[in-house]
Amino acid sequence: MGELGTTARGIRVLVVDDHPLTLSGLAALVRRHPDMQLCGEAGTAEIALELAMSARPDVIVMDLRLRGGVQNGIELASTLAALLPESHVLVYSGYLADSGIRELMGSGVAGYVPKTVHPDELALAIRTVAAGDHFIPHESAPFLASISGQGNNAARKASLTGRELLAIQLLAEEGCGNEEIARRLSLSPSSVRLCLTSAFAKLGARNRTEAVVRAHRMGVITID
Question: 123-168: per-residue pLDDT in tens?
Fold first, then answer.
């Protein structure tokens, strides 16, 4: 699933959701606005990552619950934000408390809207994050004010997740391959690949050795 669009003027949007009806609704909403251009549709994490890397959208509208080896969509959001800093990730999912929004913003996400919002508000959110600003629900306005002074660059400075730290630590201690990391962390191989891709991007590392060295210098892992 995934139709790449043209390079027409307007906000280029990739929509990601594993429910076909919701996905088609998101695509229809984007097509309805002349200032937006649909550049892809994805129903799994793997397709989303592939389309995002090839289409380089301005905005990625995505759910947090996806098929394709990723149990927590924050991992995918974090990876996309790290690999594509020019793209703005807008999470469109169930209700999140401020603590959940804080975790999203810490992973580089530009905004969040619950699935209960009116379509016009979702369109506004797309335009807002495309312009480089944050967008979260009105009820979380005090929280937004508390982070607004940090600037977009600070919001995009994503921290390593606990899973990413464990994977890098296994690389440092025993030089584990992907299959062994998957076994140790009870993950699928595709989840491990996504996890390491995200960690390498955040660390600015080109390979495993460089990732371990940089993580050690940062003090986030130990090497005996």
Answer: 888 998 898 877 876 555 555 545 544 443 333 334 567 778 888 8
Contact 33, 59 (CB under 8 A): no
pTM of the full structure: 0.63
Residue in the block written with tokens 């800093």: 85
Report which of 20, 58, 12, 16 is spatially closest to residue 38, judged by C-alpha positions: 12
Q: What 8-state DSSP symbol labels residue 10?
A: S
CATH topology of domain 11-155: Rossmann fold (3.40.50)
Q: Answer yes or no: are the C-beta atoms of 67 and 37 closer than 8 Å.
A: no
> What does the domain layout of the chain look like in residue ranges?
11-155, 162-218
Q: DSSP code of 109?
A: -
Question: Token pair for residue 51?
Answer: 């389309």
Q: Please report, as a single letter, which amino acid is at residue 99.
A: S
Query: What would be the CATH architecture of the domain defined by 162-218?
Result: Orthogonal Bundle (1.10)
Type of residue found at 66: L
